[in-house]
Amino acid sequence: MATYTININGEDQSFTCDENMPLLWVLREVLQKTGTKYGCGIGQCGACTVHLDGNAVRSCVTPIDSVGEAEVTTIEGIGNAELHPVQQAWEELQVPQCGYCQSGQIMSAVHLLEQNPNPSDGEILDAMSGNICRCGTYDRIKKAIRLATQLSEDNNQLP
Amino acid sequence: MTLITNRRNFIKNTVMVSSGLAVGFTLGNVTKLFSVEADSVSHELSPFIHIDTESNITLVNPNPDMGQGSIQASAAMIAEELEVGLEEVRIIPSDGQAKYDPQISGGSGAVRRSWEPLRKAGAAVRQMLLNAASRSWEIPLAECYAENAHVYNRIDDRKFKYGDLVTLASTLEVPENPTLKSKSEFKLIGKSHKRGDVIERITGKSTYSIDMQVPRMIHASILHSPTLLGKVVSINATEALKVEGVIDVMKCERSMLYTKFDAVAVIADSSWAAMQGKKALQVEWGGEGDHVSTQDYSESLYTAAGNPGALYSETGTFDQHFSKSRIKAEGLYESNFLSHAPIEPMNGIVEVKDNGTIEVWAGVQGPGQIKDQMAEYMEVPPENVKVNVKLMGGSFGRKSYHDFLLEAGMLSKKLQKPVKVTWTREEDVSQGPYRAGSLSKLQGTVENGKITGLHHHAIGESIYGQINGSPKVGEVDEGIGREIGFENSKYVLDHTKISYTRVVADIPIMWWRSVYAGSFAFGQECFIDELAHLGGIDPLKARLDILKDERYRLVLNTLAEKANYHEALPGGTARGIAIWKSFESISAACVFIVSEGQGVRVKKVISVLDCGLFVNEDMVRAQMEGSIVMGLSAATKEEITYENGVCMQQNFHQYNLMRINEVPEMETHIIANQDTPGGVGEPALPPIAPALNNAIFNLTGVRLRKLPMDLTNIKLT
Fold this sequence. Notes:
Chain A is α+β, with helices and mostly antiparallel strands. Chain A has helices spanning about 25-30, 85-90, 100-115, 120-130, 140-155; strands spanning about 1-10, 10-15, 50, 55-60, 70-75. Chain A folds into two domains: about 1-75, Ubiquitin-like (UB roll) (Roll); about 85-155, DNA polymerase, domain 1. Chain A has a five-stranded mixed sheet with strand order 2-1-5-3-4, with helices on both faces. Chain B has three domains: about 20-200, Aldehyde Oxidoreductase, domain 4, CATH 3.30.365.10; about 215-290 and about 340-425, Aldehyde oxidase/xanthine dehydrogenase, molybdopterin binding domain (Aldehyde Oxidoreductase, domain 4), CATH 3.30.365.10; about 295-340 and about 435-700, Aldehyde Oxidoreductase, domain 4 (2-Layer Sandwich), CATH 3.30.365.10. Chain B has 19 helices and 28 strands. A seven-stranded mixed sheet of chain B has the order 11-12-9-19-16-17-18, with helices on both faces. At the A-B interface, helix 1, helix 2, helix 3, helix 4 and helix 5 of A face helix 4, helix 6 and helix 18 of B.
């Protein structure tokens, strides 16, 4: 057992847990932030995607001991005061069906657009291919990411 | 920018208010409406509609939502008849009380089975409110009308909010047969509406079953036999008990609908600790299941194909006709075992309480069924079991099997605490239940440029056969017979025959999205193309020539038009079509492929659906899109195999699901008509695999006969 202080969604959180515990289970079971989902436990499905210093990582294979000073952003940390453009696009195009994978999809999409505000179709597919959606909402995800790029541009052009 | 305000409380388990008007209804073949004492109203008495004195409208919803948005469809059907906005109907899930009827989600039935009961219940409430207004104003009923959650009066400007009328209305008789709105009067049904629960699902705020906690809860991770049937020989818990957080290790069992499997549970203070304990656990298993092999099962299917099978139906004299026909063909098509693999794995909480009652918190398709199964398994009366239905992170049929909840029940009884069981993905993929592998043997004849005879012999394990022992080996599975029969396909031929052979599988099976339609449409619709080519007939024309039913013809003709079927395609590309009816809806698909390397790539899928009247157009499209993806994923990537009793796939690195970079362009078209609603969650899936295989033949001349089809390497023969 070890004690950690980790910055999550802009707030420092102190807690004690096993050093080997993956960030996913710290979020879900220690800190009760359940928006981040368990899907496979081996980094294959992307349901657990969060940001670590702005990089999209699979929290199910990220030991808490490796997080250190990095800032963690989860689905609960975006779109709080107002929906993020990615979430707006998701809502506009009614992307989710069961919605279980969508936290991870959205975190991957937000990361993509932060790195590359105007991705090509191929870049969208590359960035999103680590996230499985069993309901098969992929076509809407593709369209929503394109819509989100427009919404972001519109926002940037506001005075 | 959108502010997250006015978030609709679509699914929230709160105590019902205790006054107002409540009307209950049944979901059986004949809808019965009855008054419910508002004071005693709780969501144990579902399904019913309740309106309180503040005009809050609540539907206790009988149909659990697997993610297809059906709860909103239920709200729309009520709102339509009640003359209120969609957002004004609050929905809470029923708790599985089988008081008025069994409640289950499945068979694409959320709309088609509730279409009449929900509208009738809404219309009854509207009529009671109108009657109450007419009495209050002392004016004829005809002078009152309902609109926007008010009753208005045609004589002067007066109006009542619904809440103002509920006290009087609750003393009035519930009409037995309220007048339903005519289809032309619909304001909500048939239009696209946004789902009220999307914001919660995209902000991480939805509480899925796996997110549930209850006080005093402890966690269990369960190790199942790697060979399914293997019995526990010995347990060495030493290393498991050293894991921080692990509390106990105990033998338990996985109760299936037809048998019981041995299992060992690791109990811990968190899911993660329990999973780590499970990894450290050492169990010696017996060799009881070592023989289980999908290869052997598959070989038994082909052996069975050499026998005639049990007859389901016959017209004309198929065997005689086939033996003397000059232009004829025979074909075999094999479908494989598939995992449902919802991204939320199996989980749930069960608490066996001191007073003998049991409470369940879980995402399940059949709250009524789990109630009965839990009661039987735990030997308590069904009324002692309360089921709290939670959001499902996908299901596709899997969460209609409640093995994981019975595990939690047994453990809770032993531990005298609420127990949360969470399966790992490895348990989900390697333990089943699955879609069964199966074989279609087909024989057919062509005369004078027209298909004239068809025999479909379906071979494989039967879901009811496995669960109930009926059909026995040698008997017909009536459900499979109907699914592949000519009443379903509407193909009109002189000589037809449908037969079935049950082959027992020692692997648990269950409904998988579209069930037998997905398994057997592959063979039948590929073979129709085979016969067409044999007779030198275009595959579309070959189908239209033997279809008289106007709905089927319109679906095919619409597909042909949308796909520019009669226009030539560029070199290196091809298309293939298929049609199937399932769950009372007819769907056809055209799959476009392009050659790539040693194989082909799916470029585009056009799907057409006639589901009769539908509630929410956008949700129908979403289900069609999902069915295209799941259909292609199953047809080209997914496969469960067993060798020496062990499942060879354990997680998503071995059980491959379609990803976004593999998804083709897609187009969905819905036929507008006034027919009775059919299902929408599954019917667009069955035509996908055969349409793809028919396209592959059209491009390469190779006819693939076994799923999954490896598109990267198509060997020219």
